[in-house]
Design brief:
Elements (H helix, E strand, L loop, with lengths): L2 E7 L8 E7 L2 E7 L12 H4 L1 H6 L8 E4 L2 E4 L2 H19 L4 E5 L7 H14 L4 E3 L6 H11 L7 E2 L6 E5 L3 H4 L9 H10 L3 E5 L5 H4 L3 E3 L6 H14 L12 E2 L1 H8 L4 H8 L3 H13 L3 E5 L1 H4 L4 H14 L9 E2 L44 H6 L8 E5 L3 H4 L3 H9 L3 E6 L11 E4 L19 E4 L15 H12 L8 H17 L3 H7 L5 H12 L15 H6 L4 E5 L15 E2 L3 H4 L2 H8 L7 E3 L15 H4 L7 E3 L1 H6 L7 E6 L4 E8 L7 E3 L14 H5 L5 H4 L17 E7 L1
Parallel strand pairs: 6-7, 6-15, 9-10, 9-13, 10-11, 12-20, 15-16, 16-17, 21-25, 22-24
Antiparallel strand pairs: 1-2, 2-3, 4-5, 4-17, 8-14, 18-19, 21-26, 23-24, 23-26
The chain binds ligand MGD (2 copies), iron/sulfur cluster and molybdenum atom (MO).
Length: 737
Amino acid sequence: MSESSHYRICPLCEACCGLEVRVNDGRVIGIRGAEDDVFSHGYICPKGYALKDLHEDPDRLRTPLIRRKGVHVEASWDEAYAEIERRLPPVLAAHGRDAVAVAVGNPSAHKMGLLLYFPRLAKALGTKNVYSASTLDQMPKQLSSGLMFGHWLSIAVPDIERSDFLLVLGANPMASNGSLWTVPDFRGKARALRARGGRLVVIDPRRTETAEVADAHHFIRPGSDVFLLAALTQTLFDEGLVRLGRLAPLVEGEEALRASLQPFTPEAVAARCGIEAGVIRGLARELAAAPRGCVYSRIGSCTQEFGTLASWLVDVLNVLTGHLDEPGGAMFPKAAAFASNTAGKPGSGRGIVTARHHSRVSGAPEIFGELPMTCLAEEIETPGPGQVRALISVAGNPVLSSPGGARLARALDGLDFMVSLDIYLNETTRHADVVLPGWSPLWESHYDVAFPQLSYRNHARYSAPVFEAPADHPPEWQTLLRLAAIAKGQGAGVDVLALDDELLADELRKLAGERAPQVMAALAGRQGPERLLDLALRGGPHGDLFGLKPDGLNLDKVAAAPGGIDLGPLQPRLPELLRTPGGKVELAPPMLLADLPRALAALAEPAAEIVIVGRREVRSNNSWMHNLPTLAKGPERCTLLIHPADAAHAGLSAGMKVRITSGSGAAIEAPAELSDAMMPGVVSLPHGWGHDLPGARLAVAALRPGANLNAVLDDRLRDPLSGNAVLSGVAVTLVPA
Ligand SMILES: Nc1nc2c(c(=O)[nH]1)N[C@H]1C(S)=C(S)[C@@H](COP(=O)(O)OP(=O)(O)OC[C@H]3O[C@@H](n4cnc5c(=O)[nH]c(N)nc54)[C@H](O)[C@@H]3O)O[C@H]1N2
Ligand SMILES: Nc1nc2c(c(=O)[nH]1)N[C@H]1C(S)=C(S)[C@@H](COP(=O)(O)OP(=O)(O)OC[C@H]3O[C@@H](n4cnc5c(=O)[nH]c(N)nc54)[C@H](O)[C@@H]3O)O[C@H]1N2
Ligand code: SF4
Ligand SMILES: [Mo]
C-alpha cells in the first residue's frame, strides 16, 4: 500500500492545531504540524504526536463492557443495550426524571459528536441533575461574561498579534497552550509581542514557564486575585486613569462600581496578595497607559472562592482602560458556526437567567443549566425524594478530576445503575455497570464547535477522518441518541438515523419556519454532526444562507480548503454582540456587587501557613493521557514543588516522600521537588493523577500512578455564585512520609 498524508485538527487541547498525519499500510507512520494550516501554521506539541499512541493503545476500549459479579467483561453492543434497557427505565419509572444524573467531561468540548448530541441526551432525560467539568473550570468566567455582555459564551480574548501589553493572571499558556483563548504557539506570539517592544507581565504563585518568557513576574498569594484586581480598578478611579473611549455611551454602572470598590485600596490588599502597594499602582498605570493591551486570566484566578468576582474584574479593567473590543486589546471572536452571540437581534437581548432551580442537598443554584460537580456525591448519598440513583457519565473522570474524589467513588458504588461512554476503563468508569466505547480521534471528522468562539483570529477549518471506523462500532453521536431513545421509552431498537432526522426537523421548524423543508432538503446527503455543521456554517455570519449569499461558506467549501479558511483578525463587535436587556455593557451587575462584602470580610481573615495550588505540564492532559508511552516516559511528573525554605521548615529534602494532609482529613503522598520558582508558603502538585485504584485498565499509567491532588481538596469549598469548585489555595500540612 502506498503512503498517504491526512490533515487532522488536533482534538486534545484548546489550541486546536492542524496536524499532518502520515499513514502507510493502515498505520500512522508520522505526525507533524500542518504547515499550510491557516491558523496554527505548523505548530505542534508532544501531545499531538501522541495521537498515534492513543489510536494504537491496547487499553483503549474497542467493545462495550458489562460488569458481571464485579468484573468488567467484553460484551456485544446488543448485550450492552439490553442491559441498559433492563436497568435504566425502571429507575426513571420508579423515581422520576431527576433520579438519573448526567456528568459530562472535558473531551466533550473537543468532539463534534459529543458536544452537539450530549444536549439531546440531557433533554431526553429531562433531569435537573446535569453536571460537567465546567464547574471545575470556567463557570465563573461564563457567569461574569453573561452578566456583563448578556451571553454565557461572550468571552473576550487577547488580540495578541496586535497587543503591546499583556497582563496574565493564573494562566500558564506555555504549558497549557491556552484556555478560553485558542492560541496555538503562544511562545511564538509572546516572543513577537516582546520583539515589537511590548511587555508581558505574569502574576502567579509559581514562576511558571510563561513567567520565564515574560518581562516581569510577581508572586501572588493564592486566592487573592480578587483583591489585586479590585485594587487595580480602585487605582484607576483614584488616580483618574479611567478612559472608556469609544465604549463610553455603551457602559452602564461606572459610579456604582467606583463606590463599591472604594475599600480595596492597594495598601489594604498588599499584604493579602503578597504584592507591594507600589507595584499594584504601577501595574494599574502601565495598563492604563498601554495604547494596545489587556488583562487575561484563567484557571488559577477562576477556580477560587471569589472566582466570579475575579473573572468580572478582569473585564472591568479592560473596559475602564479602553482596551475592550479594541484591536490589540481583549476582543470578541466571531465564529463562522455555532456562535450563539451572532444569533437573534443584535445589540440587546434577554440577558442570562440563573437559579431556575437549586441542588437538593446544598441548595446550590443552577447556572447555565448545570449544578456544581462537587454536589454530585451528596446528591447520590442523601436519601429522600429526588435522590440520584443512576448516572450516565460521558467523557469525564470526576473520581480524579473533582475534589472529594474518594467520596464520589464510594457514592458511585451506591448507585442502582451507571453507564459510561468513554474510551478507557478508568478510575470513574470502573464503577459503571455498562461501559460503551467511544471512538479513536483518527476515525472521526473534526470541526471545532466551541473554540472558534475563543480564537485569537477568526477561521473555519474542517478535517476528514484519517481511518474508517470498524463497521460494527457506532459513532458517539449515535450512541448518545440511542441512550436518549431509551430514556424517552422509545427503546434501544430505535432507528437512530430516523430519530436524528426527526429531531433536526423539529428544530428547523422553530428556526426556519416556512423555509424549514427547503433547508432540510439543502442539507440532504449528510447525517449527524456533519449535517448540523453544514447547517450552522450556512446559516452563520459568514454563511451562504442556503443560496442567498452564494459567496458565503458551507461545509463543502470549508472541507475543500487545504489548511482551512482564514477569516481575518478579530473585529470590534460592540454594541452588535450585546444581549443584555439594556443593550449596555453592565459594569456593576447587582449579583456581583452584592458579593463584594464577602470579599471584604475575607480580606481580614488570617492567611494559612502553607497552601496548595495545581499545575499543568505539556506532556500530560488532565487525568487521561498518562497511558500513552511517548508522554509517560521521562522524569516523574507528579511531584510536589516546594520552596527550599518551606522544605527545610517541614524537615523535607529533595526526592523525599511528603505526606500532604488537608482540613478534610484526607492525605496523599508525593515526592518533594525543591524549587525557588515557588512562592514561599505555596506548594504545587499537578491534578489528574492517582492511577492506583483497583479495577481500572490503564497498564502504562499504573506503572507510575502519582497522587490525586483532588483527594485532599475539599468538595464543600465553592464559589457560591457560579458553583465552581475551589481548586487553588487550599490549606495543607506537610510532613515527611
Ligand atoms: N485540582 C484540580 N482539579 C482539576 C483541575 C485543576 O486545575 N486542579 N482542572 C479542572 C479542569 S479545568 C477540567 S476541564 C477537569 C477535567 O476533568 P474531566 O472532565 O473529568 O476530564 P479528564 O480528566 O480529561 O477525563 C476525560 C475522560 O474522558 C475520556 N475520553 C477521552 N477522550 C474521549 C473521547 O473521545 N470520547 C469519550 N467518550 N471519552 C473520552 C477519558 O478516558 C477520561 O475518562 O479537571 C478539573 N480538575
Ligand atoms: N498540557 C496540558 N494542557 C492543558 C491541560 C492539561 O492538563 N495539560 N488542561 C486543559 C484544560 S482542561 C484547561 S482548563 C487549561 C487551563 O489552562 P491554564 O489556565 O493556563 O492552566 P494552568 O497551566 O494550570 O495554569 C494555572 C496557573 O495558575 C496558577 N495559580 C494557582 N493558583 C493561583 C491563584 O490563586 N492566583 C493566580 N494568579 N494564579 C494561580 C498556577 O500556579 C498555574 O501556573 O489547560 C488545558 N490545556
Ligand atoms: S498544543 Fe498540542 S495538544 Fe494542543 S492542539 Fe496543539 S498539538 Fe494538540
Ligand atoms: Mo478545563
